[in-house]
Amino acid sequence: MKLVDRVTQEVFAISDLSGGEILPQRYQLLDDWIYTKTYILPAKAILASDSMGFLKIDGMTIHDASSDISHNVTEALIQISENYNTALSEDDNSLSLPSPLMPLRVFDENSGLNALEEMLGKVINKGYLHEICNKPRMDIRYDEELLPISRAKKLASSAHRHLSAHSECWQQRTLLGIQPKKIMSMVSEDEANLYENRVYARLLDKLYLFLSLREKELVELQKNIEDALNLKSAEGVYYKLSRFLYQLWGETFEDDDIACKALDKLEQTIENIREFSESIQGLRQHGLYRLIPRESKIPERIHITNILSHDQNYRHLVRLWNGFYGQSSRVFTPSETLERNIKVQDCYSHYCGLILLRALKELNFEILEKKQNYFALRRENRIVKLSLDDQLNWIIQDEAVKKEVLKFVPLATSHIKGNSEPATLHINGQVIIPCYISSDCILSNPIDIFEKNCTSPLVLSPLDFYGVEKIISILSYWLWKNILNYYAVPIEKMPDELISFIKSYPSFKVINSQQAQLVKPLSDAEYSRIDIFSKSKGAEATLEKITLQHKLIKELSCCPVCHRSAIFTPWDNYKFQAKCTNSDCGVEWKIIDNESKEKSFCVCLTNQNTNKFENNGRWRTSFRL
User: Fold this and answer.
1) Is the dihedral of CA 85, 87, 89, 95 positive or negative?
2) Where on the phi/psi map is residue 429: left (φ > 0), alpha (ψ -120 to 50), or beta?
3) Which strand (E) or helix (H) includes residue 174?
4) What whole-number percentage of the chain has pLDDT above 70?
5) Alpha helix (H) ranges present in 394-488?
6) Whole-model pTM?
């Protein structure tokens, strides 16, 4: 059996990976995998984790390095994917895309106490669990023990046989018989390790873990709302970036009042959960729980005994136990977990596609053509194509410069801490960017992933307000860099007549009798006259070069933020400066160089005082050429 790495496209036999550690989401099956007799994963499916810590494939063990995604993010991805597919089913190319942030339904469904938690609160408040802890049901166990005669209370059935066989236990021997010094006796002890008490102990363990996870998820939602409410008045954040992020959040909550009510509800629920957790932890630290061996296990379906049925305290254990396993969204078998994680991987691919589409629309691209998993988008003369391949990777191709394509590889898991793999790989003309749901490594600026020594990955998650803005920066970098390197490239082997003709055009800079540079945009009328003249002189080959340069420099003369026209000023040595004519924008962009003549491209605003991406977003960026 073989697998293919979705990132590097390397093919591995299972024997090559046996005993090693992998992220299952990185791999696509090339053959059918018989997971169980009733569940077969077909070829071309994406591998996923079953949360067991290892995968058994063809009798070989592969260690699973992936980590579980939080319940909130999982539910968000599924709901966003459903909304995304609904939007794609519409015929309209304008495509009303859903929000990539946490859906309102996730807050509604998870911010209050669920049925199990309400039941647990009542049971704790009534003191049923504390009664079991302090006054548990006990059994009496009798053990045989050799004791001095003064301490013996009840003789064991084997006392006479033992005494006759062990003369060392005799005090003395008389004509009437033997006077014992020690004798085998029955000693009684209270036995706490009853089945019902084992149910109690294991239930406390399950509830404590459940409450710990639940608190973590609630705090996650609480922080999400608090961060959103702080966006509007965030210090140091450029007002247009703040407004964009706040509007994106507004697609989830219509106004602050609704968000504040949700936050209040979350805070109350977190307080209740913490109280429950403290009570459970207190019960685990003393009393009955300490008398039950840790290794004692209880199956999922418990046996209902008379005590569990009729005891006024113990009968509540059954309700809580069934309530815990009734949380169908929380408890899965390994095969169900595998199937669900495969679905989540599919949803995460849709999620990344949604963010890419929203970013392209923010960059003023309009959908020209839409098919299943394929989009052609246009911005004036610039066309990009976005498609989903059979490995659930998104591929972007720029029709203006077809030299390389951008590939996003969605991996529905967390980035492994200590992974030294570059954030971006260059393979066979493709720039490959793995996307993760979370990471401990912080990426200060999204375009840093193009640096060779960068190992901090791209993170896209419904919890991240900057997801769309990150992709806008990455796509802007890629789209600009594709054409910036072609700015003012000399047009060679130009006919003498054409050289003489263009000398009167300020957009051209003539180098010699056969070479010239197009250094600023041509007007439509100027380009039309050059087109007519070139064709009349049979210089179609040169006209093709001029046309390409004309399209590229026209793109360079449009604002990278609002895409309005600019005041374009060419400089010597392949440099220029441009300023947006839109008074509400005011962005400047230029090619500059340093003392070492190393060129770089900058986008900035005159009133910006910081270079941080989180403060400026797309409105300030720079990179080397």
Assistant:
1) negative
2) left
3) strand 170-174
4) 96
5) 467-484
6) 0.85
Q: CB–CB of 139/291 below 8 Å?
A: no
Helical residues (DSSP H) of 142-194, grouped into ranges:
159-165
Cα torsion at 69, 71, 76, 77 (round to 10°)? 40
3-state secondary structure 181-229: CEEEEEEEEEECCCHHHHHHHHHHHHHHHHHHHHHHHHHHHHHHHHHHH
Residues of the chain short of pLDDT 50, as ranges, are none
Q: Measuring CA to CA, which residue among 439, 435, 437 is closest to residue 463?
A: 437
Instruction: Please report the pLDDT score of residue 90 as a whole number.
Output: 79
How far apart, in whole angstroms, are the C-alpha atoms of residue 553 and residue 551? 6
With residue 157 as reference, give the H or E element that holds it: none
Q: Which of 612, 486, 623 is nearest to 556 (CA)?
A: 486
Q: What is the DSSP letter of 565?
A: B
Confirm if 465 and 248 have CB atoms less than 8 A apart.
yes
- pLDDT on residue 608: 59
Residue 361: Cβ-neighbour burial (10 angstroms; 0-12, 13-18, 19+): middle
Cβ atoms of 464 and 613 closer than 8 Å: no
CB count in 10 Å sphere of residue 497: 14
CA distance 482 to 405: 10
Amino acid present at 104: L
Q: Residue 491 carries which DSSP code?
A: B
Average model confidence (pLDDT) across the chain: 86
| Positive or negative torsion for Cα 556, 561, 566, 570 | negative
Nearest Cα residue to 150 out of 185, 115, 193: 185
For residue 494, give Cα distances in angstroms to 535, 547, 552. 13, 14, 19
Residues 6+ apart with CB under 8 A from 303: 195
DSSP state of 568: E
What phi and psi, each to the nearest 5 degrees, are found at residue 459?
-115, 125
Angle at alpha carbon of residue 236, lines to 231 and 240, rounded to 5°? 60
CA-angle at 360, arms to 405 and 438, nearest 5°: 80
| H/E element, 613 | helix 613-616
Cα–Cα distance measured from residue 466 to residue 432, given in angstroms and rounded to the nearest whole number: 21
Tell me which DSSP letter residue 287 carries: G
Q: Is 571 helix (H, G, I), strand (E, B) or coil?
A: strand
Q: Rounded to a whole number, what is the distance in angstroms from the first to the last CA of the chain?
A: 44
Residue ranges with strand state E in 336-381: 366-371, 374-379
Residue length of the chain: 625
